[in-house]
Specification:
about 450 residues, alpha/beta, TIM Barrel, Arc Repressor Mutant, subunit A, 2 domains, about 20% strand
Amino acid sequence: MLEINLKERLDDFWVFPKLTKIQHSRDYNDNFFEFLNNSEVMNVPTNLYIHIPFCDSGCIFCPYYKLHGQTNYKKYLSKYVDSIIFEIKKYAEQPLLKNIKIESVHFGGGNPFLIPLSDLKRIVETIKSCFNVEVNDNWTMEGSINLIRDEAYPRGLLELGINRISFGVQTFNEEIRNAMNIKATIEDIYNGVEILNKAGLSEYCIDMMYNLPNQSVEDFIEDLKKVTELNPYHIDIYNMAVFPNTYLDKLVQTKGHFRINPSNENQMKMFREGDRWLLENGYKQIITNTYSKKQKEIHIGDKVYLENGNVIGIGVSARGYINGYAYKNVCDIRDYLELIENNNFPADLAYHCTLDQHYDRRMVYFPILMEINKCDIPDYSRYEERINQLIERKLVKWVGDTLKLTKEGIFWSGNISALFISEERWATYIKSFLVAAKEKINPYNEDMMGKEVVDLEE
């Protein structure tokens, strides 16, 4: 039987199954997407994710696919907007997806705030014309607060139905912000929040990071004190992951470069202390990394995703999962645009999960939700031994018919998720790192993100 490992605290698993070039590369002339020709009514809750790769910040900890500089922005913006509109329509015209209801729409990046309202309106109108989608606290967008310079943009977002945004502060420590190459200034943060409030966009969520280089536990608590003064809708706290083969990894490995290096020991201390401080100061834990005084329950987008729903991923590098068919779009805007121009689905990685793997996906994600009802555990007998092991370790407990993580279980949520990943899937994770090591690339997307400091003035 698989045994839970509590030696090193793992981050939560937000991507499952993991796709890698060595196993899941596809021929664009294959028949992978023929499953969309099924005309049966699809009742699985479904999200829509749209990736905007343009970015005006060169944060060295960020692993996501993005394009920096004005040259790229001006060269590709118009073509890219046209292409994602084309891709949205291409999915919407498939028999399986015709007339389906979209539960939530999210714009991620990169920095979607760089998209002009006129282009954003075209995308939003395309989504509304192609799918059955409501506008009811379910359209969200992330971006960088330094681009909120006047009330026109947030008011424009509200008019389009995008009433919740998120942005990363990460830390208020100027030394660390400079070392991480974060472009937004502290003044940008306070000015941006003031503008959001004046514009009436009050559901702004803020990302904070812990285990940053040169960051102490005391620094993190001070960051939490300052971010709560901004009165966000919720606060997300994330452990900073150092990906191999990146510029940040090189700095961390350089002896004496940082006074304090990111470490498992530091991140464990910081999570415990940050969690304690937030709860003692009136915050409710919504999911493992989200805390709020205002938000009463999990957002519909997260709920659908974490309860094993579908997601249609649109745009360069976007991930999708539809009825057990997992895919990831190509991580190169030039290839993406060419594939769209040739009327191809622009996914370069694809995999059809077995039913067991589909069930595993539900169990891998449930620890982030911190609970699962017994009737929602698929094929309970398959997981019973592992659940009993978690009960014996006092990491979960039954409360009526609901399996809930204990306080200690929440701390080890990533490790609990790992217990439900099969040896076969773990081998895939290992192979993806081997590919990255061999090709000297960032293993997150198996691309070149984070390899060097970028020139934002390009």
